[in-house]
Task: structure prediction
Amino acid sequence: MKAARFLIFILFILALSADGFGQTASTAGIAGVVTDANGAVVAKAAIKLIDKATGAEKSTATDSAGRYVFAAVDPGSYDLTVTAQGFRTFFTGGNINNLWNTFMDFVAPRSFNNQQSLDLFVRTSLGRSNYNAMAVTLHQRLARGLTFDFNYTLGKSLDQIGLIQNNVGQFSSSFDGDIYYGPSDFDFRHIFNANGVYDLPFGKGRFSAGKYLNKVIGGWHVAGIYQAFSGAPLTVVQGTQVYGAGLIFGASTGAIPNGRLNLDNSVKSGVTGTGGVATGGNVTPTNRGTQLNLFSNPEQVTKSFRSIQLAADGRQGRGVLRGMSRWQLDLSVGKTTTIYERVKFGLQFDFFNVFNKVNFADPTLDLRNPATFGVITSQLIAAGLRPRVIQIGARVDF
Result:
């Protein structure tokens, strides 16, 4: 099965009554083109437009060029489905009212709108968030050449936006900020850090082996930094304007899981996309995909989510999945040798990510782009995580 995708080109039609400009009846027209995952047009695809408020339906079919048209559509919120033989049914929950606002801002005569602004923003302190955590620390003061710290945090952060305070963002709905309430984007449930330094017990004043041999075995130290944390929240995105959020900074809205999900968050290799889902990771003559995916069966995962029911769902599906956990170990080995009483020579070997652990970036989970759903394509380089780097340094103290 292949998944149909479509590109929508919007045409707006203004119907004016004969009685004059002040007594107008306004409608919008919608036109689009249906293509498959390879960009080929899909003819004779059944298109259905459903008014969410009344349940009224309009139907049409694509022509030989994959085009379809709905004329005289009243402004409102609609669902659109695309069905074609040999393809998985495509569903999108869209808002014609947003398209109508665009028309009012840029196309309609001056008396309809204020052409000086598209969206108005108001910063407010009405949003809410909370953070609860337990922290455990074990500290060893320097004794016999050894010092270390171990820190573990079990935490949970919830908020309505998920971004830092000075970031520009918008609520999914101006009527209920709690629709977006869920795990913060930075909600890492488990965080563990460890660091330590140990002066090896060899050389003068410790396990001595003679004047000259001490120059070789003495003065060595080992240091390390280990960090590990669980996965960040992930959202299976349905769209950005499901609740009528703004056109510019509208937040992504999460689809709702059909039931309890039992999915692990490890990397799956050798995954072949099916039904048009995760096909971007496939290896073909024209595509060198990674065949790495967050899910062993990404098509089945997409079927485990449904679109939001505006009249029934009080929350969206934000952060219902978790990304991959990550860890990294940095190691340093060094030696300090006394040349003369006031002259010392130091040699340092630093290994960042000594085991060259690959920490992948979380994939996109967007139902509007099923070909890339769950496909892992890049390595995460952030927050001190990186591919292995070896650094050698030398210094003279006098």
The chain has three helices and 27 strands. The chain has two domains: 2-112, 130-397. Confidence is low (pLDDT under 50) at residues 1-25, 94-100, 109-115. The radius of gyration is 30 Å.
